[in-house]
């Protein structure tokens, strides 16, 4: 089955700096890579996603890049703000097994004011 | 209007007891899931149902039994609870079997086994 690794497990940045979270996946058949944000005590919510036919996608301060050859994808947050503090999860999805999402182990991001 | 709702939100019980968590979605989605999030925040899929049929059953103890009376509901029943079952259980739903479907999570049910 798919194996998704995520690094780092914790990340602290100063407000205004950038944050980068990296994930690798094992199954080359995976073709959809969403990122979820989970604030303390709340549910995970989708913040951005990327499909395998795209190398980069941006939405305001967040962007995701995908390298299919190397089987890794990254989340970039620029101009970080305290409200960006949360746990971020990457995921990979195998289209040929229906709606099966494999999550990374999560990154706890702290933005220091 | 809550899209994915699950009850109860908190559940404290003794080892050996049987308990259920209910989940309902009003998004018209075809696929529903149960995820377990442990104390280290790992999100692990347990089950997935599509139109009331089981399509994913990860390696979980058979003390856990999901039931889907219709495609808007997916309940989780746990028998003979153990300390290691303590976790937050998230119900989720998505549209169809397309791998591009966004997962909508419920608020979670925090289970504490004493």
Describe this structure in words.
The complex is a heterodimer of chains A (113) and B (114). Chain A has no helices and eleven strands. Chain A has strands at 4-7, 10-14, 19-25, 30-38, 45-51, 56-59, 62-67, 72-77, 86-94, 100-103, 107-112. The mean pLDDT of chain A is 93. Chain B has no helices and eleven strands. In chain B, the strands form two sheets. In chain B, strands 2, 4, 5, 6, 9, 10 and 11 form a seven-stranded mixed β-sheet that branches. In chain B, strands 1-3-8-7 form a four-stranded antiparallel β-sheet, with no helix packed on it. In chain B, a hairpin with a 2-residue loop joins strand 7 (64-70) and strand 8. Chain B is globular, with a radius of gyration of 13 Å. The N and C termini of chain B lie far apart (34 Å). The model of chain B has no long low-confidence stretch (mean pLDDT 90). At the A-B interface, strand 4, strand 5, strand 9 and strand 10 of A face strand 5 of B.
Number of helices of chain B: 0
Q: What is the structural class of chain A?
A: mainly beta
Rounded Rg of chain B:
13 Å
How would you spell out the order of helices and strands of chain B?
Answer: EEEEEEEEEEE
Query: Gap between N and C termini of chain B, in Å?
Result: 34 Å
- The multimeric state of the shown protein is heterodimer
Task: Outline the fold blueprint.
The complex is a heterodimer of chains A (113) and B (114).
Chain A: E1 4-7, E2 10-14, E3 19-25, E4 30-38, E5 45-51, E6 56-59, E7 62-67, E8 72-77, E9 86-94, E10 100-103, E11 107-112
Parallel strand pairs in A: 2-11
Antiparallel strand pairs in A: 1-3, 3-8, 4-5, 4-9, 6-7, 7-8, 9-10, 9-11
Chain B: E1 4-7, E2 10-13, E3 19-25, E4 31-37, E5 43-50, E6 53-57, E7 64-70, E8 73-78, E9 87-94, E10 104-105, E11 109-113
Parallel strand pairs in B: 2-11
Antiparallel strand pairs in B: 1-3, 3-8, 4-5, 4-9, 5-6, 7-8, 9-10, 9-11
């Amino acid at each position: 089955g798919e194996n998704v690794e995520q690094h780092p497990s914790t990340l602290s940045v100063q407000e205004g700096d950038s944050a980068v979270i990296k994930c690798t996946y094992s199954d080359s058949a995976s073709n959809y890579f969403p990122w979820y944000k989970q604030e303390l005590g709340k549910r995970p919510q989708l913040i951005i996603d990327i499909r395998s036919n795209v190398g980069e996608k941006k939405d305001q301060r967040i962007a995701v890049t995908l390298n299919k050859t190397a089987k890794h994808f990254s989340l970039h947050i620029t101009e970080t703000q305290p409200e960006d503090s949360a746990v971020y999860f990457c995921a990979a999805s195998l289209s040929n097994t229906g709606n099966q999402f494999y999550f990374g182990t999560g990154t706890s991001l702290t933005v220091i004011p | 209007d809550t899209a994915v709702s699950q009850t109860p939100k908190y559940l404290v019980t003794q080892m050996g007891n049987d308990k259920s968590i209910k989940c309902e979605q009003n998004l018209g989605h075809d696929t529903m899931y149960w995820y377990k999030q442990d104390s280290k925040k790992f999100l692990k899929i347990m089950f997935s149902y599509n139109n009331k049929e089981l399509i994913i059953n990860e390696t979980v103890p058979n003390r856990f039994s999901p039931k889907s009376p219709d495609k808007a509901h997916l309940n989780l029943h746990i028998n003979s609870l153990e300390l290691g079952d303590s976790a937050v259980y998230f119900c989720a739903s998505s549209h169809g079997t397309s791998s591009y479907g966004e997962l909508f999570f419920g608020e979670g049910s925090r289970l504490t086994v004493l």
